[in-house]
Amino acid sequence: MSKPIIAVTMGDAAGVGPEIILKAFQQTRLHEEAVLFVIGDTSILNRAKDFVNTDVEIVSIIEPEEAEQVKAGAVPA
């Protein structure tokens, strides 16, 4: 059985949402039950990487199904 594909909204770009998303997507167990992707601006997510001091990869996608090809730990957006 395939995993469901679930969208996660980034929230307010000026808030803590982008930082929380980056930290959450680094948790491998998050990817065990579903394929997740972020609805939001990749430039904001890339800027948030400096705040959380992470090198997590932000992968730009066009279609939700593309998130299935992104490795666990990276952030499809």
Task: Tell me about this structure.
- This protein has 77 residues and is of the alpha/beta class.
- The protein has one domain (5-76).
- Helices cover 26% and strands 18% of the residues.
- The chain has helices spanning 17-25, 42-52, and strands at 5-9, 35-39, 58-59, 75-76.
- It has a two-stranded parallel ribbon with strand order 1-2.
- α1 (17-25) crosses α2 (42-52).
- The longest helix has 11 residues, at 42-52.
- The termini are far apart.
- The mean pLDDT is 92.
Layout: helices, strands, pairs:
Elements: E1 5-9, H1 17-25, E2 35-39, H2 42-52, E3 58-59, E4 75-76
Parallel strand pairs: 1-2, 3-4
Radius of gyration: 12 Å
Secondary-structure element string: EHEHEE
> Whole-Å distance between the termini?
24 Å
Strand order of the largest sheet: 1-2
SS-based class: alpha/beta
The count of β-strands is: 4
Strand content: 15-25%
Shape annotation: globular
Biggest β-sheet: count, sense, barrel? 2 strands, parallel
Q: How helical, in percent, are the residues?
A: 25-40%
* Mean of pLDDT: 92
Give the number of domains.
1
Low-confidence stretches at least 5 residues in length (pLDDT < 50)? none
How many distinct helices? 2
Task: Give structural attributes.
single chain; PdxA_fam; 26% helix; oxidoreductase activity; alpha/beta; NAD; 4-hydroxythreonine-4-phosphate dehydrogenase; 2 helices; two-stranded parallel ribbon
In short:
Belongs to the PdxA family. PdxA2 subfamily. This protein is an alpha/beta fold. It has helices at about 15-25, 40-50; strands spanning about 5-10, 35-40, 60, 75.
